Amino acid sequence: MQYILERSKLFIFLILILMLVGVYTFLTLPQREIPETPPGLVLISTILPGAEPEKVETSITNPIERQLQSIDGIASMNSISANSASIITLEIEDGIEPDGLINSIQQQAQRAAGSFPDQAQDVSVEKLDLTFPLVSYMFYGDEEELAQLEEPLAKLSDEVEAVSGVAGTQVKGLNGEQVVIELDGDALAENQLQPFEVLQSLQQANQPLSLGTHSDGEQQFVLTVQQSQGIEKLRELQVGQTAVPLADVASVELTEVQADDIVTFEGESSVSYTVFLQTGQDVPSVDDRVSEVIDGFNEDLPAGISAERYVSQAENVNEIFSTLYISLLIAVLAVLIVTTAGLTLYGAFAVALTVLASVLIGLIPIPSLGVDLNQISVIGLIIAIGILVDDSIVVNDNIQRRYKLGDNTLTGAINGVKEVYPSIVSSSLAIVVTFSPLLLLSGGNGAFIKALPSVLITTILASTVLSITLVPMMQYLRTKRKKRKISDTPGFLGKPLEKLAQVYSEKVLKGVLKHPWLTGVGGLVIATALLSLALFTPFEFFPEADREEVTMNVRLAEGTTIEETDAFIQEVTQEVASEDEDVNETAVFTGEGLPNLFAASMDNTGANTGQVAFRIDREATSASAFIDKWQPELRERYPDAEIFLDTIVQGPPVGAPVTVTATGEDINELAALRDSLEEEMLTNGASVVTDNLGAAVPAIEYVPEQETLEDNGIALSTVTNQLQLLTQGVPLYTLYEGQTPYQVILKQAGITEGETIDLSAFSLPASSAASDEEAQDGEAGPPAAAQPGPPELIALDELLTAQEMTTLAQVPHQSGDRAITLRAFGEADDFEAQMLEIVDNARADLPAGYELSTGGENSDQEAFFAEIGILFLVVLLLVYLVIAFQFKSFGLPFLVLIAVYLGISGAILGLFLTQTPLSFLGVMGIVSLTGIVVRNAVVLIDFVEVRRLTGDFDIKEAIIESGYARIKPIVLTSLTSIVALLPVALSGDPLFEPLAVTIIAGLMFSGIFTLVMIPALYYLFNRKDKKQTA
């Protein structure tokens, strides 16, 4: 220590340099609203045109899932096999490096593709990176002019995606275009062509033409053939053996494709354009760069189109951070005011500088921990400021005490640190081990809270070092320059604090020590009784954000067209907007729904689904009140629709209160089990029950006439291909017209939407071999010579028999097995218990090979509390070990841990009195108290233990002397922590208010009771220890 003090100026200069590095780190940390909680999802999608769900399941989904079973690192695997499409969603386990895993997934998916039918398109494997929307625009106005935005928006996306920090863009509501080749049946017959001949010619035409090179001895020439490009090339293509131009037998036209979404903004047709942020990027800076590009684009929009900046994360971030920075500034001012209340101006300056240096230096390693600047990390800084002041005040106060006792400049600084550094180091380690286990929290909850323990750990470690170096260095330099008389009552509240110390030591402690059993046991009884108040305290795992957006999810019956769904949602939206004057704005996304805005998600989207975003007047109502008003009302008005209203939740997304998953082999048996469970749930308290199977949809099944097919030599695949041409068409490849890509679809004219399919109007040629055999059947003699002329045509209704039926819209899987998941919603207090009882009863009657499993939001919360309970026990053990090593005692740490018990009781009391919900961050506040409140007990006991180790002391006098010496730093440090958090507690922020209330109430209650109970219990412990020794 002497070495450091004698070189104080050099070390202070080094500290100032580190502070500048900390300032740079703070200014360059990426800013965002809430911590990133990466979804860790991978989507595998494959298209099998025209295939029914069970065909997709057996041909596509099952082979891929079998291959994926061999890959480690996949937490869950869910899939949907629907008409023409297989979609598999994988969740990556925590801690797994995603890029390497995705490579393995791609390899296994490609291996499975070797067994796919020839019609299957390429497997697509992609990580879902477009999860954090940065900014979203609405382009609305004239529909014809909106339709012309496809190419301009494509060019805009190229520019925007070139901006550093942008993950991608998404356009919704814009009808695309495709090239449709529609065969004319009469023209085909006239030219003696069959559709498959046209198909072969088109596939061959898409192959790259390469004639190679040729050398004439002097030069090397590349050989090419002049060809038309784009659509014109298709029209001129010669098809069949007779080389008929395609334009003679088919129309080749650009046609509009219905978008996956119909978007309206304030009742007007719109196009939504959303930009997504890359992981780890700074929201405001990337937004500035993106806005510059889009603003330039908006300037050139046609007169009939308007642009609206619909959602901006940068605006939210700036608004939130301005409020948080005010709270941070108040916390800093609280440190200055409280420290000057009991310290000299110079001492207060030394403490404030040490706190500031601790914060800035503690920020330096934060980027390497994967933490950015968000609400959680800023709150962590506010809490840290209240805690960091403790060490500096204790050191400064003890150095001043040593100078009053007559120590010289150097000795006073050394002894002042030497006497208190064990308690400072141990109490700081207690805080570090308190927060370290929180870094081990799994899943989205762990990712969400990670910033809090990270900031507190790094700043506490910095504070521990600086408090025993920077504070004594500053006091040493000042005292060395000029010896000053040390005031007995420094600070503008010095005299009241001195009076408090005298009253506490001479009256309170003496009274406590006369009745130690009454004081100690009575305090424990009171603290234990207060814990029961938790039963009367409201609970809310993650609170709703105080935002103006409310989203509405709508799902209609399977088979509903997107136009019908849009008409329904528009009707509902207009009703709400016209009947509720608190609605300021509406936006409708029919189809796949919102582009991940407002944390609103929807599973199994399609033509029968949609989402609405309402913006309400927050001054007149709240999001929860709006939901409570309209959700039951709309469900009553429209009982055939699934309608859910929701708002932004400040935390990771949550699911249904109860989920039930039924697994088994037969999908029809599972569907029957689903129906039974759903009926029971709705009868016994559930307001809504949804599932991922959906209702059966009407279908037409074509039964092959095998004998007719065989007699005419026609393969069933030829018949099904002909049907596909007549209905949805056959997708071929992508054609470029200039720089714009278009999907090419081959169809045959004859069947239009809205009309009954008449198979008798379409024919296929019988094979020549079959015709010859029929002609010679029963005749003797040599076979007749083949007769020239067109082949015999067989009508499709002779080859197929149509029958109406119902079929499943999709086949869901979980972990490779057929599985149906039900999600139950209800409001009853014992809702979960009722639902679980229904499931238990159903298990008793399950057929062999079928299982029921349960989960849901409530189960997730129970799992979290189980995990946090285990971590809390680990925290207590670690704190115990730290204190046991300091005091070299097995029993004494239990006295210190009583302060934790008192802190928890105080936290519950504070939540109860303010009726603040016990939430996720409220629990984090209780855990945080473990490390914070032990400081006061450690500081108090350590002073007595130092006297005890001298061997010549009176236990009562030592306790009284300790109380007199330590009451001021304990009061100042506790007061600073409380005042620093008061702005957060009074801010009304539903996310952080429980955290602030638990810490403030815990500190107040524990602080008061610790000053009374710990001396009494220590006296009893010491007296018992002496008797055992004797």
UniProtKB/TrEMBL annotation:
GO terms for cellular component: plasma membrane. InterPro entries: AcrB_DN_DC_subdom (IPR027463), Acrflvin-R (IPR001036). It comes from the Bacteria. Residues 778-787 have a biased composition (Low complexity). Residues 766-789 are annotated as: Disordered. The chain crosses the membrane at residues 12-29, 320-338, 345-366, 378-399, 420-440, 452-477, 517-539, 863-883, 890-913, 919-944, 965-986, 998-1021. Keywords: Membrane, Transmembrane, Transmembrane helix. GO terms for molecular function: xenobiotic transmembrane transporter activity. This is Efflux RND transporter permease subunit. It comes from Planococcus maritimus. The lineage of its organism: Bacteria, Bacillati, Bacillota, Bacilli, Bacillales.
